[in-house]
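[09:14] KT: can someone run the structure on this one? pasting the chain below
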Amino acid sequence: EPSNTMLAVKLDADSLSLWNNFKLSKLKDSDKLVNWVVFKFNNPREPTAVVLDNKGTGDFDEFLAALPDTDSRYGIFNLKYKKGDGEREKLCLLVWAPDASPVKARMLIASNKDTVKGQLDGVAIEFQAAKKSEVVFTEWVEKAQQQLK
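[09:31] RB: done, structure tokens below
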């Protein structure tokens, strides 16, 4: 009897609706636009859904600080950067799987990534990291600037 961890785990309805508002820059918190969201599994042992863990209106450092050192997450940051003489924005997905998170958590975050990413319509760039030192703002901007679109 295979356990339901083999089933693809998806964003629940609330998270999907929140995502749709976020990607259209309509998600606000105390009248400020939300810049980042972090999703987690609703139950680390036998997850049935991906749910909101945290969201914020702050900068990249605030986003980084919201990622737990001992558990895996899907984080999305609305990267604002300059290209040529214009301001651009790109939604970036971070698959966060720190070394200190349980093996099962790292397996789950990896095995469900494609399903979750398929629901996160609008994500332009994907990053993966196991240490906060691997998540570097300037590298994200560089990667965004290299994209043709």
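[09:33] KT: thanks! The mean pLDDT is 91.
[09:34] RB: yep, looked fine to me
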